Structure formats: C-alpha cells, structure tokens
Amino acid sequence: MTDITALNERIQRESAFTDLLLLEVGKTIVGQKTMVERLLLGLLCNGHILLEGVPGLAKTLAIKTLASAIRAKFQRIQFTPDLLPADLVGTMIYNQKNSEFTVRKGPIFANLILADEINRAPAKVQSALLEAMQERQITIGEETFGLEEPFLVLATQNPIEQEGTYPLPEAQVDRFMLKVKIGYPTREEEGLIMRQNIGGDVPAVKAVVDPSSILNARTVIRDVYMDEKIERYILDIVFATREPANFKLGKLAPLISYGGSPRATISLALASKAFAFIRRRGYVVPEDVRAVCHDVLRHRIAVTYEAEAENVTSEQIIDDILNTVEVP
Asked: What are the chain's domains?
C-alpha cells in the first residue's frame, strides 16, 4: 500500500522549486499562464511541445525566459524553405592544416530549442529535427553525439499563413507530447505589457533553478500516485477516440478518421502526474487528467471530411468525450 500522506509531504518538498520558477518567468511573461505551465510540463515529462498561435504572443520570449531561469542553453532556429539538415545538426568541415575532416556541431546542441515556424522547412529538415527529438542523439558523418539533458523542442506554427509551408505529417505531429494553442492576452494584461515595453522596465530574469533539479523532478514525478480508477479513466478517454460507439458516442464515429495512439495514453498519464506535481500534490485526481487532455489529444485525433464540412474540430470531439465518459 502506498502511504499517501508521506508521499504527499515528499512531493510538496520536491516540487517547491516550480512555484519559484513560475514566479520568475511570470516577471517577464505577462499572462499566458497556461503556455508557461505547459512549457514546464514538457520539461518535467521529457516531452516536446508544438505551439500554435499568431505572431507576437511571446512564444520566443517565453522559452528564452525559461532557459534563463533554469541556467539552460537556448537556441532559436528560424525554419525557412531553403534550410538544410546540416544547418540544423551540423556538418563535417575539411581542415587544410591537418588534412582531415572535423565535426562542426549545429544549433540543435542545446537544452531548449525553439524551432520557429517549423512548417516553413521542407520534409528533410523536419525529419532531422524529429529524429533528434525521438532518439536524443545526432549522427554527423560516422560519429554519433548524445544530446545533453534536459532537451526540449518547442516548435511553433503560424495558423494564419499557409502559403509556402510544408504541413507536418500526422505521424510526425504525434511525436509532440503536447500541442498548445495560444490566445491573445486580456485587455488588462496587454495594458501592462504595453507599459512595461514603452517604459523599458521589463525585469531581468535570474537563474533560480539548476537543470539537475529538472532531471531529479522527472524521477520524482514517476512516484506520484495514480489510482487504478484514474488509469481506467485515461484508458476510457483514449479508447473513446477510437471506438466512440462503445461509450454512447456513436454520433462521433463518422467524424473521427482515427483516434489517439498508445503514445497518447502514455502522454496523458505522464502529463497528469506532472500537473499534480506542479499543483504540489502527491496523487492524481480526475481534474488533472481533464486539465491536460486537450493539449495531449488535439493533434492526435484526425477528423474526417464530413467533420470538416460540418466545422467540427478535434477540440469539440474531446469536449464531447469528457462530457460523456464517466468520471471516477
């Protein structure tokens, strides 16, 4: 039997740094609490994030600020149609003095990578990045180099421009643990953003956490207690995306082309544990699952042409599933 009280006390101690980290990032990033929390979730779960939002919503600033707050190396890579895989991972350079080839590492060798407008680069470049994400290593010539942990890729997509883009194939999108959609700030938040920037009083970010704390937290998160009822709830949600008729959701069957993969189940369970960890709890409750469900599943449910004709999105399908599947 798990001693929930002792586990809860341990998690409260181990997760104390998350409040400090969120507070430090919040000094620079006004609003966008959900985006910042999801960035932290990605770090804690060792998973990558696909971020979708119009330009100017502080996507670059958020990950740069987070990197500064955890003493991590940050690299921003602007994806363009003429980008080559070597521009990302590095290449072999011929040294005339020694008459031999030496390795020149690319910008992928960092802790936090911002892949800006990933859908602007051709498939070869996207594949090179996704291989690094999955394998956590890079091969240049005959040498293989491991990537330093923590390693998080934040890829952004601009939803308002589709000309000259190479949409990510569904199978590759599945490799991102979370897909986060960002909205505009509120009127009050935007007023504060305006005053900070025109007054030049944007506070400097201090390093408050070491990367070792993140790596330690990843181990601790595995110990967060998840009851069998919560496990069944997660399985019900994912299976409802594949077999909706079995969950009194027959109306969704013609709208779903295919549902979440086993990777979705793993990601939903792990993200729920990490969300409980951020909330300083040693156990998962159904609200944790529901809080991260949209971010884990929205890019893993493919809708049919019929759904598109009726303007039904994957988010509406997730809403229907959460409203119908029995909560433990």
From this structure: 4-81+107-199+209-214 (3.40.50.300), 227-324 (1.10.8.80)
